[in-house]
Write a structure and sequence with these properties.
- The chain has 128 residues and is α+β, with helices and mostly antiparallel strands.
- It has two helices and six strands.
- Strands 1-2-3-6-4-5 form a six-stranded mixed beta sheet.
- Strand 2 and strand 3 form a beta hairpin.
- Helix 1 packs parallel to helix 2.
- It is globular.
Length: 128
């Protein structure tokens, strides 16, 4: 097993130098687990921010040979849980097919004061 931490140049860069965006745990057979740090995005509305978050997640996963179809777990933090349906409508556009395991929390405040949503994922990448 090999562990590497990464901020892929092909994806939006982290908002702080104090964390890595992706932890890749590579197994001997070439398969891997990707742990992607919580992502936030710019936008005036929850819909805009959610779209930006999933676009960033897509880029981070793509940099490691994966996609949203490889996501096995998703953890979402919303500053207003009453807007879960608005978030869910965007999420369903990006996560088609069988949904991954999931947890959603309401958080009083996120990393940036303007952030309305933060999402982290775990993806399983099959051997090549």
């Amino acid at each position: 097993m090999q562990i590497s931490l990464d901020n892929p140049a092909s994806a939006p860069q982290p908002l702080s130098p104090y964390y890595s965006q992706v932890a890749r745990i590579e197994h001997a057979d070439g398969s891997a687990l990707l742990f992607v740090s919580g992502q936030i995005a710019e936008g005036a509305t929850l819909t805009e921010q959610t779209r930006g978050v999933f676009e960033t997640l897509t880029a981070l996963l793509r940099a490691h040979g994966a996609g949203l179809a490889d996501v096995v777990n998703i953890r979402t933090y919303l500053t207003d849980i009453s807007k879960l349906d608005e978030y869910g409508a965007v999420r369903r556009k990006f996560l088609a097919g069988t949904p991954p395991t999931s947890m959603t929390f309401e958080a009083a405040r996120l990393f940036r004061p303007e952030a309305l949503v933060e999402v982290e994922v775990v993806a399983a990448v099959p051997a090549r």
